[in-house]
Amino acid sequence: MKKTLIALALGASLMGSTALAGDVRLMWYSDGVEGEVMKDLVARFNAENPGINVILDEVAYKVVQEQLQIQLEAGTGPDIARVTNIKTLAPHWLDLTPHLSDAEYWRTNFGAHADWMREDGSDAITGFMTQLTLTGGFANATLFEQAGIALPGEGATWDDWVNAADQVAKSQGTAAAFAIDRSGHRISGPNVSYGANYIGADGLPAPVDDGTKAFAEKLVGWVEGGQMLRDTWVAASGSTYRAAADDFINAAIPFYYSGSWQIANLSTKIGDGFDWVATGSPCGTAGCSGLAGGAALVAVKYTQNAEEVAKVMEFFAREDIVKEFSERTLFLPAHAGVAAAGGLNWQTEDANVKAALDAFVAAAGDTLPAADALPAWKWASPVYGALVNRISQVMAGELTLEDAYARIDQDIAEQVAAAQ
Amino acid sequence: MTGVKGMLGAVVTAPLGALARVLDAPLRLWQRLTGQGGMVAFFLLPNMAIFTIFVLLPLVINVAYSMTTGAALFLPERTYVGAAQYERLLRCADYTNLATCQEDQFWIALRNTGTFVVLQVSLLIVAATITALILNRALRALSFWRAVFFFPVLLSPVVVGLIWRWILDRNGVLNAALVGMGMDPVNWLLERNYAFSAAIGVTIWAHLGFFALILLAGLQAIPRDLYEAAEMDGTKPARVFWRITLPLLMPNMLVVIVLALIRAVQVFDEAYVLTGGGPGTATLFLTQYIYEVGFASLLKNPGLAAAASILMGGVLILLTLLQLALGKRNERKGRLK
C-alpha cells in the first residue's frame, strides 16, 4: 500500500511538472473573428504536439493595453502575446533566434517588419505580424446613393470627402457626416498627408509642426461645424481609445475613418444591411497617406519554456498557417511569401469585403515616408497619446489650438524624460 | 433531529476543544511573562498582520513610488527623484488660472472632485433624509418601498454606469422618449453641465438607499413619546423636525456625512463608465486621473500616479480624522446628557 501511494505521488508530481514544462500561455485579443480562428488553430497545434499545451487566454484589447505592460515590468505575463504597442514594449520580447529551426525563413518572410518589434539597433527575431493593417476610410455606399451624391473619386481631399458626406448626412438625416476613431494613431496618417513629420533630426519627437496643425485645425472645425460626430472624441478624456465603428454599422454616419482591421467586423455586423466600400485615405496637401501598422504575435522573454514557445511561434508563422489565418480572418498577411504568391481565397460571401481588401492593398502604395517611419519609432505612443488628449480638450472648448500645441509639446517632452 | 444537531455540534466543538487544550499552556505562559498587555497584543496580532501586509505596506511602497520615476515596476530599478513628482503636480504659475499649472489635468480633476463632493454630498444628504423620513412613516407596502430604494445599492457600480449610459446616450432611452413626444433629443453626455449633473444624479441614485437606511435606523431609535408630547403641545411639524428629529438624528447624520464625503472623494467607477471623464475633462475626477496616468496611458507614469494618490490619501485621512473627532464629541455630549 505504502509503495503504491509513493508511486502515485511520484507519478502525479511528474505529470504536474511535465504539464507545467509544456504549458505555453498565449494572450490574445480580437477585433473581429480572429479569436475563433485562433481557437481552432490552437486546438490543431495541441493535437499535433502532445508535449506542448497552448492555453489561449482571450482578453479584451484594453487588458493588453493597460495590464500587459505591468505584468511585463514585473517579469511575469504570458509566454506569447498579441500586441499592438510592440515597439514601446520591445525590451520585454524574447529573441527567438537561438530557438528557431530556420531563422532565415523568418528574416526572409517577416524581416520587413522586424524593426517594429525590437529595440533600436537589435537584430533579434521577437515575433511576427499577425496581420498588416492600414488606416483608411469606409463609406456607406447605400446612403450616398440614396442621397444622390457621388462617392468622391481618386485624389479626393479630406475636404471633398467631408463635404460630400455632409451633403449625404443632411439629405438622409444621419447624426453626423463622419467620424474618426478617438486615437492619435488614426489621425497620424492624415497629419502626414498634410506634411507632418513627428520625428526630429535627433530621433526624438519634433515640436508640433504645420502639417499636424493643419489637420488638427480641420478636425476641430469639423466638430464645431457638426460634420464630425462629437461623441467619439468629446465624450471621453485623456488618451482613452474609442472606435466609431458602431456608429457606421448603425448607419449614423455615412463616412468613417478607421482601418483595414475593421473589415471582418463590418462584414459580420452589417451583413446585407447596406453596401459599403473602402475608400483608402483622403488626400491632404502632401499626399494621401494612411498609416501602416498591425498586431504582432511576440514571445515574452520571461517565459520558462523558450523552446516550446519557439515551436508554437514556428507553427503560427508557417506559410500555410499564415495563409489560412489571413483567408479566414480577412486580414492582410504580413508574410512576404504569402503576399508575393497572392491568390488568397478570402473566406467570405460578402462582396463588399473583397473589394475593400483590394482597396486597402492599393492604398498601401500611397503611404508617405513620414508615416512609414512611425511603426518602428519608439516615441510614437507618447505622441499619439498627447495628440488625442489635447485635441479633445480643444473640441470640448477647454483649450485653444495654440494652447493645445504647447501642451502637446510639453506632455511629450515630460513623457520622454520620464521614460528615459 | 436533536441527535443530528448534537452530532454536528460535537463535530464542530471537538476540534476547537482540542485546539484550546493545545494552546492553553503556552498562552498561560505568555500571560505570566507579558501580563494583560501581552495578551491584548497576541489577540490583535492577526488583525494587525493583515492590516500591515495589505494596507500599511502598500501605503509605504506607494510613498516610495511617488519619489521615483520611470516605467520599471520594482523599486530598486526605479530612479529616485525626491519630491519632483509632487513639485510637478503642485507647480502653477498662477493658482487662479489652472491652465498655467504644469500638470493642469491634475488640478482640473481636483477642482471637479471638489465641486462634485460639495454638490453630491449636499444633495445626497437631503435626498437620503427625505427618503428616510418617508420610509419611517406607516406607509402601505413599506417593506416593498424600502427594498425599492435599497435595490440600486446591490448593483455593481459598472452596471449602474452602463444602465444610465444606455438611458442618457445620444441614442438612449431618454432621447427616444423625447423624440417620441415630438421633442428634440439632447446630448446629455456631451454637454458639460448635463454630464456633470448626470454624474452627480447617478451616484446619488446608486448610494441613496444605503445612506437612507442608516438614517432610518436613527429615526426609529427616537422615542415616540417625544413626538406625542410635541403633538399635545401643538408644535408645528417643521419645528418638530428641527427641534426633535434632526438633533436626535445627528449621530447617524454625522456618520452619513463623513461616509458620503469619503465616497464622493473616491468617485470613479460609475462616473467613468458613464462619461469616461468627458466631455473634454468636465467629469475628470481625481481617481480617474490617477488611473489614467498610472495605468491607461500608452506610456505609463506610476510615480506621478503614486504622488497624486498620496495627496488624495491625505484628503481622505483628514476626512477620517474629522469623523473620529465628531464621533468623540458626540460621545462626550451623550455622556453629559
From TrEMBL, chain A:
One term under GO cellular component: ATP-binding cassette (ABC) transporter complex, substrate-binding subunit-containing
Pfam families found in the cross-reference section: SBP_bac_1
A single GO BP: maltose transport
Signal peptide: 1-21
Keyword Transcription regulation: no
Keyword Amino-acid biosynthesis: no
InterPro entries documented for this protein: SBP (IPR006059)
Keywords: Signal, Transport
GO molecular function: maltose binding
Recorded family membership: Belongs to the bacterial solute-binding protein 1 family.
Name of the protein this chain belongs to: Carbohydrate ABC transporter substrate-binding protein
Species the sequence originates in: Pseudotabrizicola algicola
